[in-house]
Structures are given as structure tokens and as C-alpha cells.
Amino acid sequence: MKKVLLVATCLMSTGVSAGESAHIVGGSLGYGTQDFESKNTNSVSVNAGDSVSTDLYYRYMLNHYFGVEAGFISGTGGVISAFTDSIFDVKDLSYQGIRGVVYGQYPLSQSNSFYAKVGASYHEVSYVMDKKNIETKDNGFYGALGWEYRFKSGVGINAEYQYIPMQELEVQSYNLGISYRF
Known about the structure:
The chain has 182 residues and is mainly β. It has a single domain (2-181), classed as Porin. 12% of the residues lie in helices and 68% in strands. The protein is built from 2 helices and 8 strands. It has helices spanning 2-13, 79-87, and strands spanning 23-37, 45-61, 66-77, 90-107, 112-129, 132-150, 155-165, 169-181. It has an 8-stranded antiparallel β-barrel. A hairpin with a 3-residue loop joins strand 7 and strand 8. The termini are far apart.
């Protein structure tokens, strides 16, 4: 029991390494899928096609392994969605919102790491159905898994899978991003 407490204390108390700043800003651009299901009286379920997404964020590292992150997410239909708009009643589907997450990383080397993000998001989904503009607001889960390589200059590149289930829309996206530690 004493060993477990000692290890937990060491993990929680280790600060960011000397010379490394705790502040990181970044962004990513992604491509994935979006599934739509209307929750109103005319319940409609549509595979809304593909999605182009963006994610801008600020992260503060609490120590070498854990941080907290706040960001802005948005997305809209891609090329395939342009074709599905002409077939289905749901058109011009898009979303935007904010998110807050806990960030954890597992270093593979000094510059290389796997990471996970788990938290909550607040978002607005807008679309046109039966020639009416509809907007819904909701909050819910936000999750991501990824890999990052950070150069000595502070610039980092990453590849990430995002999962964002909303009340009417479920987004799964594969993102490529860049960040800067300052």
C-alpha cells in the first residue's frame, strides 16, 4: 500500500520538465463521417455522409503526463454530403461548439507520445429540413485518441481520432494537426 501511495504521489507531483513550458496552442483539420437522427416529431435517421471538421485548442500541462484543454470545434458536410443533400430531407448540416477535456499522454520517447482526451462539449447543430432552418443545442461527451511528435523547437504534429456523440448528430473524425509549446 505504501508503494502505491508513493508512486501516485510521484506521478501527481512531477512538474513539467525544466525548460519545457506548460502552455500549448494548436489546431487540426479532419475528415470523417456524420450520422444524423432528428429528435423532433418527424423522426428522421440519415447517414449524413462525410464531414470536414476543425478543432482549435489551448492546453495547460499540469505535469509531464496530464493536462487540461479547452477548445473550439466545428464541422460541416464534405463532398459526399453535397450529394446526399439532394436525396434526403436534411440539408446544410453543420455543428460548432466548445469543449473541455482532461488530457493524458504516454511518452514512447522524448519526442513521441500516444495520448487520450476525455471530457465534455457544448455544441449547436444547425440544418435545413422541410425548408425550415433548425438549430438545436446540447452538451455531451467528447473523446479522442492520438499520436504526437514534438520537435525541439516546440512545434508538434499529431494524428487523432475524434468521437463526438451529440443528441442528433454523431461525428467520427480523423484529424491531422499542428501545435506549438510556448
